[in-house]
Amino acid sequence: MAIVAPFKGLIYDFHRIQNLSSLVAPPYDVISQEEQDAYYQADPHNVIRLILGKKKIGDSDWDNVYTRAADYFQRWQSDRTFIRTTEPSLYITSMTYDPGTGDPERIRWGIIALVRIEDQGSGVILPHEKTFSAHRDDRLKLYRACNAQFSQIFGLYEDPDNTILNACREALPHTPQMDFTLENGTRHRLWILNRKATFNKVSDAMSRKSIFIADGHHRYETSRNYRDIMRARFGQKPANRSYEFVMMYLSNMSDEGLTILPSHRLLKKVSGFQPEPFFAKVGKWFDIKKFPFTGQNIPQECADLKQGLEQEGQHRTAFGLYMHSSDHYLLFSLKPGVRPEMGEDLHPSLRKLDVLVLSRFIFQKGFGFSKDDLDDEEIFQYQSNMSAAVSEVKSGKYQMVFLLNPTKIGHVKEVAGNSLVMPRKSTYFYPKVLTGLVLNKIDPYEIIQVP
Q1: Cβ(214)–Cβ(429) under 8 Å?
Q2: How many of the other CB atoms lie within 10 Å of CB of 18?
Q3: Which of 70, 87, 385, 424 has the least CB density, counted as fewest CB within 10 Å?
Q4: Does residue 378 come out as left (phi exceeding 0), alpha (psi in the -120 to 50 range) or beta?
Q5: CA angle 399, 283, 335 (to 5 degrees)
Q6: DSSP annotation string for 206-272
Q7: Is residue 160 part of a domain?
């Protein structure tokens, strides 16, 4: 099944760099323009210059965000901003964070390692969300310019007894090599583990498992495309060349620190929307209840709304709707026996998903959106924070927002296990895996030693 190996990662020189928190960033695809500017200003060596460079007027084939990233990457290796681990290693991380749900702090553990890239349909590495060619093309250009992977793909594996992580933690030194806290209070620690006996335990245990992609679907498909390009140029033998592998952050699906947030659907404008005919139409599928919403204390009112959504969602699919200039919100609850009307083309696993109930009954049947419309970012935007989403509608930036419960991890596993994919933004695994802790330099002549 999954083939996992240690590797010689590139890391910031933590011996001489004091403020590591100013060097890291989230994955490129969740960074806004304002956040990009802030990361640029944080430090001249921030990883943002590699993963999401700034475009310039006059960019050309020989001077663009990808070539500039390659230049930064080469210079930072030369001046030892980045140093390479001397021995193949696993990189054990812990992240202490506020889940944003009102619950106490959580700690999520992860293992950063190389994983052999699998062909589609192998059943070993399982995606669960749809991808788009524009994002894949962008990441492939960066891959080819730098011959490196800067961000880990977030993978989940099943290990109810936590045997893999326990084996790693038993071998860790007491003091981590990295220990820093971000401005949002999230604490990150990293240990470099280079014990061969532990490698063998991890490799043996993972060899009987599949890996579910939690985040980084575009980057995983890009790594496979890059592998195929390198195979055409350098061949497939000897086995285990570095481009046959991709860097992953692996976390136990049973980890108590694992948090999934919803992705609420913000709509900029629904052409021709008339409330009364719309509610009459969708009322045959949903029970619809009205609740007052003043907007005077959005965080508190959203907390109440969220609690009501959660309670209703324990029994059946439920979601909320808030519209601009409205003095109330609406709670939609799916009526018994109507789920088959979502369409015969949907696998039973997909019919269970709240996001697809919303998509089929409300967006397609109710509003008349096409399947292409559902992927149009001019129509839809996504926000995991309920208060922020409602505030943007109240301000008039958006016409309405549909508020969801988070997708259950069991549903993610079931969909991926059936070789199916969910709509985009069906899950938001929180927090995102930090970029900049470990980088993977790809030398086509390097052979990865698999335990």
Answers
A1: yes
A2: 8
A3: 87
A4: alpha
A5: 115
A6: HTT--EEEEE-HHHHHHHHHHHHHHHHHH-S-SSSBGGGEEEEEEEETT-TT-EEE--EEEES--TT
A7: yes
Q: How far apart are CA 107 and CA 396, in angstroms?
A: 37
pLDDT for 239 equals 87
| Segment 65-120, tens digit of pLDDT | 999 999 999 999 999 999 999 999 999 999 999 987 667 899 999 999 999 999 98
Query: 3-class SS at 397?
Result: coil
Which of these, 247, 265, 209, 316, lies nearest to 428 by C-alpha position? 265
Length of the chain in residues, anyone? 451
Is 186 in the same domain as 267? no
Question: In whole angstroms, what is the distance from residue 254 CA to residue 446 CA?
Answer: 35
**Cα–Cα distance, 388 to 71 (Å, whole number):** 38
Alpha carbon distance, N-terminus to C-terminus of the chain: 14
16-25 pLDDT, tens digit each? 888 899 999 9
Residues with Cβ within 8 Å of residue 52, at least 6 apart in sequence: 25, 28, 31, 36, 65
Quick check: bond before 44 cis, omega within 30? Answer: no
pLDDT band at 125 (very low <50, low <70, confident <90, very high): very high
For residue 447, what is the DSSP state?
A: B
Number of folded domains that form the chain: 2
Same domain flag for 196 and 278: no
- Domain range for residue 292? 263-405
Within-domain flag for 416 = no
Residues 22 and 103 in one domain: yes
**Would you state the pLDDT for residue 240?**
94
Name residues whose C-beta falls within 8 Å of residue 247's C-beta, 6 or more positions apart in sequence. Answer: 7, 9, 112, 113, 114, 115, 149, 152, 153, 438, 439, 440
Q: For 229, phi and psi rounded to 5 degrees?
A: -65, -45
Query: 417-435: per-residue pLDDT in tens?
Result: 888 888 888 888 988 999 9
Whether the per-residue pLDDT at 187 is higher than 80: the answer is yes
Q: Is residue 425 part of a domain?
A: no
